[in-house]
Specification:
CATH class of the largest domain: Mainly Alpha
CATH topology of the largest domain: Outer membrane efflux proteins (OEP)
Number of strands: 6
Number of domains: 2
Mean pLDDT: 80
Structural class: alpha+beta
Number of helices: 11
Largest sheet: 4 strands, antiparallel
Order of helices and strands: HHHEHHEEHHEHHEEHH
CATH architecture of the largest domain: Up-down Bundle
CATH superfamily of the largest domain: Outer membrane efflux proteins (OEP)
Helix content: 55-70%
C-alpha cells in the first residue's frame, strides 16, 4: 500500500513539473534563429554602401546639357563638318566663272660649244638657260554646265543643312532622353529609400510583437525577407542611377558622372494640340521631309549637270613667257648679249566637243536620273512616314498624360490601403502577408508614377524632334 502511494505521488509531482514547464514557455520563448533574433536588423540601411556618394557627380541643367550635346556629339560634329565642306563646294562652283591663272619657271645648265666669229674658232663652254611665264584661261561657254553645277552645289549645301537640322533634333532627343533618365533614376532611388524605411518600421514592429508573444516566428521571418528585398532594390536603384549619370556624361561629352538638376517647369502639360494644324506645320518643318526635299533638288541638279556634257566647251587662253641665256634671273648678262630675257605672248580661243567617249556620258546620265527617281520616292515615303509617326507620337503623348493622372490616383489609393493594413495588423486583424502586399502595391504605384511623368517628357521630346520645332 505504501509503495502504491509513493508511485502516485511521484506521478503527480512529475505532472505538476511538466505543467509548470509548459506554462513558462510563452514568457521565455526559445531564442529564434539569427536573422530574426537580432533586434538591430532594422538598422541595416546604413550597412549598404552608398555608391552615389562615393563618386561625386557634376550637375547640369537641361539647357546646359543640350548646348554641350550639340558641341560634342560625334554625329553632330560630323554633320557640321559636312555642311562646311558643302559650303566650300558652293565657293568652288563660283570659282568656275573666274579665269584660271598659273605660273611656271624653269632653269637649266649644260655643256655646249659656241663659234667665236671674231677668231673663227669653236669655243667649249657652259650653256645656261632659264624661262618663266604666266598663263590664264577662261571658259566662255560650258554648255550650261557651270550653272547646273552651281545649282547642284547649292542643293548639296541645302541637303547638308537639312541633315544638320535633323541631327540637331536627333541630338537634342538623345540628350533629353539621357537627362530625363538621370532624373527618373534619381527619384527612383528616393522611392527605394522610402520603401526600405517602411520595411524597416515594419520589421521593428514585428520584432517587438514577437518579443511580446503577439505574433509568430513566421511573421518575423517574412518581415526580414521583405526588408532584405527592399535593401536589394535600393542597391539596384543606386546602380541604375549611376549608369544613367554615366550615360548622360557621355551624351554631353564630359568625363565622370553627371547628375541632372530637376526643374519643375519641365513638367508643365501641353494644352490640347490641334493635330490638323500640327500636320500642316510639320510638312514644312519636319527635318526628315526637309532633308528628303533637299535630296530631290540635289539629284535633279546633278542630272542637269550630267546632261550638259552634250554641249561643246568654248575657252579663251592667254600666256606670256620670258626666256634668256642665264641660269637665274639675278645673274649678270653674258658678254656679247644685248639683253637677258626675250618675251613672247599668245592669245587663243579653243572649242572642244567629245563626239564619243565610250558611253561614259550616257552612263553618268542614267545614274543621275536613277538617283533623282529614287530621291522622289524617298520624299513620298518621308511624307507618309511623317503622317504615321505624327499620329503615333500624338497618341503616345496623350496616353502618357492620362497615365500620369491614373498613377497619381493609384498612389493615393495605395497609401490609404497601406494605412488601413498597418492599423489592422497592429490590432491583430490582418496578417503580415496583407501588410506586405499593401507595401509592395504602394512601392509599385510610386515607381509607376515616376516613370509615367518622365515618359510624358520623352514623348513630348520625340514629337518635337519629329515636327522640327518646340511645342
Amino acid at each position: 500500500m505504501m509503495t502504491l502511494t509513493r508511485s502516485l505521488s511521484a506521478l503527480a509531482l512529475g505532472t505538476l513539473l511538466a505543467g509548470a514547464a509548459v506554462a513558462q514557455q510563452p514568457t521565455t520563448p526559445t531564442p529564434p534563429p539569427k536573422p530574426v533574433a537580432t533586434p538591430a536588423a532594422p538598422a541595416a540601411p546604413m550597412v549598404a554602401p552608398d555608391t552615389t556618394q562615393m563618386m561625386p557627380a557634376q550637375r547640369v541643367t537641361l539647357a546646359q546639357a543640350l548646348q554641350r550635346g550639340r558641341e560634342y556629339n560625334p554625329s553632330q560634329v560630323q554633320a557640321q563638318q559636312n555642311l562646311r565642306v558643302a559650303n566650300m563646294g558652293v565657293t568652288q562652283a563660283w570659282g568656275t566663272y573666274l579665269p584660271t591663272i598659273s605660273g611656271s619657271a624653269s632653269s637649266a645648265t649644260g655643256s655646249g660649244q659656241k663659234f667665236n666669229s671674231a677668231t673663227g674658232t669653236v669655243v667649249n663652254g657652259t650653256a645656261n638657260s632659264s624661262s618663266f611665264g604666266l598663263s590664264a584661261s577662261l571658259n566662255l561657254f560650258t554648255g550650261f554646265q557651270r550653272g547646273a553645277n552651281m545649282r547642284a552645289a547649292n542643293a548639296t549645301r541645302d541637303l547638308n543643312q537639312a541633315a544638320l537640322l535633323q541631327q540637331d533634333y536627333a541630338t537634342d532627343l538623345n540628350t533629353k532622353q539621357a537627362f530625363f533618365a538621370a532624373l527618373s533614376t534619381q527619384e527612383l532611388v528616393g522611392v527605394a529609400q522610402a520603401n526600405l524605411a517602411q520595411n524597416d518600421q515594419q520589421l521593428r514592429l514585428t520584432t517587438e510583437k514577437l518579443r511580446l508573444g503577439a505574433t509568430t516566428r513566421s511573421d518575423s521571418l517574412t518581415a526580414s525577407v521583405a526588408y532584405g528585398t527592399a535593401e536589394v532594390q535600393l542597391i539596384q536603384a543606386k546602380a541604375n542611377a549611376l549608369t544613367a549619370q554615366a550615360t548622360l556624361a557621355r551624351a554631353i561629352g564630359l568625363q565622370g558622372m553627371v547628375a541632372a538638376i530637376p526643374d519643375t517647369t519641365l513638367e508643365v502639360r501641353l494644352a490640347s494640340l490641334d493635330t490638323a494644324a500640327l500636320r500642316q506645320e510639320a510638312e514644312a518643318t519636319a527635318p526628315a521631309v526637309v532633308q528628303a526635299q533637299a535630296s530631290v533638288a540635289e539629284t535633279r541638279a546633278s542630272l542637269s549637270a550630267q546632261r550638259a556634257q552634250y554641249w561643246p566647251t568654248l575657252s579663251l587662253g592667254a600666256s606670256q613667257r620670258w626666256s634668256g641665256s642665264v641660269l637665274f634671273p639675278w645673274d649678270a648678262t653674258p658678254a656679247g648679249a644685248s639683253q637677258t630675257y626675250t618675251g613672247t605672248w599668245s592669245v587663243g580661243v579653243s572649242l572642244s566637243y567629245p563626239i564619243f567617249n565610250g558611253f561614259v556620258r550616257e552612263a553618268s546620265i542614267v545614274t543621275a536620273d536613277a538617283n533623282a527617281i529614287a530621291a522622289q520616292a524617298r520624299l513620298r515615303d518621308a511624307r507618309l512616314l511623317l503622317d504615321a509617326n505624327l499620329t503615333q507620337d500624338v497618341t503616345a503623348l496623350d496616353a502618357a498624360a492620362a497615365q500620369i493622372d491614373v498613377s497619381r490616383t493609384s498612389v493615393a489609393a495605395a497609401q490609404e490601403s497601406l494605412r488601413m493594413q498597418q492599423e489592422r495588423y497592429r490590432l491583430g486583424a490582418s496578417t503580415i502577408v496583407d501588410l506586405l502586399t499593401a507595401e509592395t502595391a504602394l512601392n509599385q504605384a510610386q515607381t509607376t508614377l515616376v516613370q509615367a511623368r518622365y515618359n510624358y517628357l520623352i514623348a513630348r521630346a520625340t514629337l518635337e524632334a519629329l515636327v522640327g520645332h518646340t511645342l
